């Protein structure tokens, strides 16, 4: 049985747990759309694995934080995270448009 994704907001930190795949993104999206603008940190230490849909969700959260005028700090590297980030040429803060993302 697959683990159920979980998102917990603790102050300005969003802690994610479980598999961050397409099914998890569909389940979490309504909850994450209502996040406050003050989100400053993503904690991924308890995420088992991330797929391209999960990475897209994380990149969207990071883009929202940048729109609010601050970068989103990300900690933890679940399986698949580094490989997909490199494949999509995302910068360490999950910005597709950053100069370092193209290199």
UniProtKB/TrEMBL annotation:
PROSITE patterns: STAS (PS50801). InterPro entries: MlaB-like_STAS, MlaB_ABC_Transporter, STAS_dom, STAS_dom_sf. Transmembrane segments: none annotated. SUPFAM superfamilies: SpoIIaa-like. It comes from the Bacteria. Pfam families: STAS_2. Residues 14-76 form the STAS domain. PANTHER family: BLR2341 PROTEIN (PTHR35849), INTERMEMBRANE PHOSPHOLIPID TRANSPORT SYSTEM BINDING PROTEIN MLAB (PTHR35849:SF1). This is STAS domain-containing protein. The lineage of its organism: Bacteria, Pseudomonadati, Pseudomonadota, Gammaproteobacteria, Lysobacterales.
């Amino acid at each position: 049985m697959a683990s159920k994704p979980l998102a917990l907001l603790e102050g300005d930190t969003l802690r994610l747990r479980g598999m961050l795949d397409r099914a998890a993104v569909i389940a979490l999206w309504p909850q994450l759309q209502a996040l406050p603008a003050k989100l400053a940190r993503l904690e991924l230490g308890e995420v088992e694995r991330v797929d391209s849909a999960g990475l897209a969700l994380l990149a969207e959260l990071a883009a929202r934080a940048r729109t609010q005028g601050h970068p989103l700090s990300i900690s933890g590297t679940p399986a698949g995270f580094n490989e997909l980030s490199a494949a999509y040429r995302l910068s360490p803060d999950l910005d597709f448009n950053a100069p370092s993302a193209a290199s």
